[in-house]
Amino acid sequence: MDPVTHALTGFLLPHLGFKRKASLTVSVISSLAPDLDYITMFMSPLDFLKYHRGITHGVLALFLFPLLVGLLLRYKFKGGFFYYASLSFLSYGLHLFMDLTTQYGTMVLSPLDWTRYSLNLNFIIDPYILIGLLVAVTACYYSKKKTIYIALLFFILFSTYNVGKHYLKKSGEEFLRDSMDEYIYNIYPLPNDFLSWWFVSESKNTIKAGIVDIFTESVYIRDEMIYSESDRLVRASKKTKAMEIFLSFAKHPYPEIIRENDITFVVWRDISFSFVRGNRFSATVEYDRNGNIIDSYFVF
Q: Which contacts qualify for 54-59: CB closer than 8 Å, 24 or more apart?
């Protein structure tokens, strides 16, 4: 999820009954703390791709950060260790869960396991959750005596929303299996839509991608590709640092060769994001006419 959504969640959470002094500050900071790894963006987009949603989004940080908050505040507020550590744990943990629902992937078990896990329920920015938070926060501001009920209602609706999308996702997967004869099926959320899902299927070396519409019970195949690494430049590109990082991130990597004059571009795309226009979520290695690397880079 985006930082605005996380900040609003951190603002709303204390209204569930955490009324002690500094509760709001602790909740907002803890809700944003996992995204401290955004600092890697100043290093390079590839470093951001490699480290974002890594150690700061893992189980170790989930326990260490609230522990640190509790220790810092126990001297300033009597009996504050358990209270503020618990609030920080809830805020931090809610951030990890919200990120886990998106398809970007979260290394939630790091440092024990560096695998990216995702529930594939929501797009990276979900307008329905964001609008719901804005309405709830505004209502809390104007109805201070009913804030606990407003906050409780939002989190009930938030839970229902995710359970509902899980059910819709399963329905889409079942319909896809009944409609196509493939080996592997995966579906991913589309922006601003929960009845239509982006799918990627694989059968031997054939990759198909398109949209499965639960409401109309239809499957639209937009792309059909043959996966091949027969070109030596494709194989060589996998050994570059840029591509190693990208391939550790991509769920459905697919290579494409583009030749312009004396330059050859090996472009790897993540098909699970190919519904996004342009070359978003792709990694490119440029070669000269002699097969020497000119440059390699990633595009968000």
A: 54/107, 54/110, 54/114, 55/107, 55/110, 55/111, 57/95, 57/96, 57/99, 57/106, 57/107, 57/108, 57/110, 58/107, 58/108, 58/109, 58/110, 58/111, 58/112, 59/108, 59/109, 59/110, 59/112
pLDDT tens-digit series, residues 20-70? 888 999 999 999 999 999 999 888 888 888 889 999 999 999 999 999 999
Residues 237 and 230: their CA atoms lie apart, in Å, by 12
- What's the length of the chain? 300
Classified as helix, coil or strand, 294 is strand
For 66-117, write each residue's pLDDT tens digit.
999 999 888 777 778 899 999 999 999 999 999 999 999 899 999 999 999 9
Q: Which residues pair with 270 in a beta bridge?
A: 253
